[in-house]
Design goal:
alpha+beta; 2 domains; 3-stranded antiparallel β-sheet; two-stranded antiparallel sheet; 5 helices; about 10% strand; DNA integration; CB; DNA binding; plasmid
Length: about 190
């Protein structure tokens, strides 16, 4: 459901310029707990996706969601929606295709909703149409996040002139096959 936005005063607690801090809104309370503007922006995008889905309206914003109406079944259905939500991708010079959201991104979206519902349950200043019952919140917390395997973070580089800069190679290592991980550390095979 969508309501008229609450009027609040700008606060330093929410660093996003287009959102006003409202101590009666669980979305604002949650975003105010995040310390960086980038974290606030990321989680707001996650919550906006939920608002669009829950309200079935492309212009819906998380501040206008009646969080009191969110139930266990809704969050389960949203999790399923995220699992099959197509994400357009464009590679320069290639035909546009779609791919699915990663498991980590799906979980992030669900975690954002859970954290707002936590505020809606536990903070007494939240307005009645946004408060949820503790039992409903507990049921939603029982929903397991999606699990799965990620792709390996290492790739093999068979470049013969790639040199090891240390004093000696580890036992059994060959400088022609070095695996370099995303974090920048090296391992030999």
């Amino acid at each position: 459901m969508v309501t008229v936005p609450p009027v609040g005063l700008r606060s330093g607690k929410i660093l996003l310029g287009d959102i006003r801090y409202d101590p009666t809104d669980p979305v604002c309370l949650y975003l105010a707990d995040l310390t960086s503007e980038e974290s606030q922006r990321t989680m707001y995008r996650c919550l906006r996706q939920f608002a669009r889905w829950f309200c079935d309206h492309d212009e819906a914003l998380p501040e206008y969601v009646h969080w009191r109406e969110v139930r266990h079944a809704d969050v389960l259905e949203y999790q399923l929606y995220l699992q099959y939500k197509p994400v357009p991708t464009e590679t320069p010079g290639a035909t546009p295709t779609t791919k699915a959201l990663s498991l980590a991104t799906q979980n992030l979206y669900v975690i954002a909703v859970r954290n707002v519902l936590k505020k809606a349950c536990r903070i007494s200043s939240v307005v009645p149409h946004k408060r949820i019952d503790a039992q409903v919140y507990q049921e939603i917390c029982e929903i397991k996040l999606r699990a799965g395997k990620r792709l390996a973070k290492t790739r093999t580089s068979p470049i013969p002139n790639l040199m090891y800069s240390g004093t000696h190679l580890p036992k059994g290592a060959d400088s022609s096959t070095i695996k370099i991980s995303v974090t920048g550390s090296c391992s030999w095979s």
